[in-house]
From TrEMBL:
Domain Bbp19-like phage, residue spans: 42-104
InterPro entries reported in the protein's UniProt record: Bbp19-like_phage (IPR057447)
Organism for this UniProt entry: Candidatus Desulfovibrio intestinavium
Protein name: Bbp19-like phage domain-containing protein
Feature: compositional bias, Basic and acidic residues: 30-42
């Protein structure tokens, strides 16, 4: 007769999940660092800042959105989602190169 397996309790389950969670967290940290590095590369270049400015403008980050009577809730949610994405991009750029944010937000740099 084979011995019965020990009962599964919360501690044994979390112990089993720790390596996977640690690996997932490590992977997320590496991905976040790679994104910051990519954003930093864009922030270091006038062409990269131009691209980021264009994306922020396309996301309507700096425009007041006033819903009209013809706007459906779905359209409002889509517009707000676009703005949220733009602000996430701006935060990523700021985390990557905080000293270059003023240059990023200067539209006259496009004239260079």
């Amino acid at each position: 007769m084979t011995p019965a397996a020990p009962p599964l309790d919360g501690d044994s389950l979390s112990a089993c999940a720790l390596p996977d969670e640690a690996a997932a967290q490590s992977r997320r940290q590496r991905q976040a660092e790679a994104l910051r590095e990519a954003a930093g590369d864009l922030m270091d270049s006038p062409h990269g800042r131009r691209l980021l400015r264009w994306l922020l403008t396309a996301c309507q980050c700096f425009e007041a959105c006033e819903p009209g009577p013809q706007d459906s809730p779905a359209a409002l949610y889509a517009r707000e989602g676009r703005r949220v994405l733009g602000f996430r991009l701006l935060r990523l750029a700021r985390e990557a190169r905080p000293t270059r944010v003023a240059q990023l937000l200067d539209p006259e740099e496009d004239d260079v």
